[in-house]
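Bump. Still looking for DUF453-domain-containing protein structure tokens.
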Amino acid sequence: MGSQGSDARQIDGVGGATSTTSKVAVVSPSARMGVDVDYTFVQVAVGQETVDFSGNCGNMCAGVGPFALQEGLVRARPGEKTLDVRIFNTNTSRLIVDTVQVDEDGSFSEDGDYAISGVKGTGSEIKVAFVDPAGSMAGALFPTGRRRDTIHVKEQDGNRFSVKATLIDAANPFVLVDERTLPPYLKTASKDTAGYLRHMESIRCAGAVMMGLAPDIDAAAKVRGTPKLAIVSSPRLSVWANPIQACNSQARRA
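Sorry for the wait, here they are.
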């Protein structure tokens, strides 16, 4: 896992050369009262010989409960069909509860018919509850004290622009940008170009400073895992992968 010699292709690794598949969960029995296991999330960099311990990952959280059950770190009582696994995330000092399905022999029940839009196949349902997630890193749900902020961005080449955003810390810190306030050239730009991603990183770093997560832009750029960035837009007509969801959506609109 990782990149030797800053090789972004990860030829010698198992990360698949993407940040979403270069993640590690370190799990151990917990000595904390009312907690089953401690879990530390590690984001392994792609193309750099670095790791990031800031923040958490929801997908990895969903795997901690099944892992703990399969490895014998927790045990289900005879006859139990579901098990609550209480997890302490050391990155954010927050409690998470995974509710997992249990087989007749007490092991994790992996197969099932539960489906998530955008995810291929089905499996057993895993419920993930974040207990008191506000202020996990920045100390408050809205670190600036406002629900809507203006982020003034100044890039290294002198380019300047501003966007409207919500800076929120719930389980992880996020910079949620209102797409309508992006400069016109970013609204029409291809999302997978280096130039577009560079502008997004500039927004993210400026937001990190406003949230108190970094003292300056240079320091914010060194922590790639947090805050997360999302561009929020109005609903658009789309083709639903799940016909049931399409029917439910139409029913709600009616």
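Helices lie at 58-70, 184-187, 194-210, 217-221, 243-253.

Edit: fixed formatting.
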